[in-house]
Amino acid sequence: MKARMTVLALLCVPTVALAQVGHSPTGSPYRDVRKGHTITATGGYFGGSGGVVDVGPHRGEMFGGRYDIRSASALQIGLAVSQANLKRFILNPTLPPENRLTGPVQQSVTFVEIALQFNLTGGKSWHRIAPFIGSGFGLALASDTPADALFDFGNKFYLAPNAGLRFFLSDRLHLRGEARAAFWKLTYPSVFENERSEWIVSPWLQVGVGYSFSP
Length: 215
Description:
The protein contains 1 helix and 10 strands. By secondary structure, it is mainly beta. The chain has a single domain (30-213), classed as Beta Barrel (Porin). The strands form 2 sheets. An 8-stranded antiparallel barrel has the order 2-3-4-5-7-8-9-10. Strands 1-6 form a two-stranded antiparallel ribbon. Strand 8 and strand 9 (173-187) form a beta hairpin.
């Protein structure tokens, strides 16, 4: 009798375990995300304002790419480069108020950053979806605007917290979308009487197509 009860208990263990998980292995909504390296082609739109005097670069399309390494189930680190074709205005405080602001003029900005990403579902996707939060830390390198002899944007360090998700079309291929906010500081020349410096935050939307591979 004791032997029969032991056998029955052992047979029930897989059933109980399956009930706890809630899904068979083939029917589970969770799938492993491939470890290793990912390259992603990106495109997006950079918004926001140019500051209170409107001379900082803002509003325009951008494109680029990123390279990521997933070092743990939830954490990955990457390097991203984007080229933005932005607009800005020119302020000449020596002119009458109605004529001081001219433009917009074009200004290209290159964004180079180290990107940290925390995958909220760890090393798995849920129904092929993998949400994340993260931040980019980088340098914005602006082209010259010869028409403006007073204000020079130069090169600015920036911080870009973000949130988004990846949708996996296959084991290797996925779509990526994220909302970002770029923070940087503008410093104005002394001839801009009312303003000397300010922190700017600009919205930044980005989408991409990524491909994962092993080294």
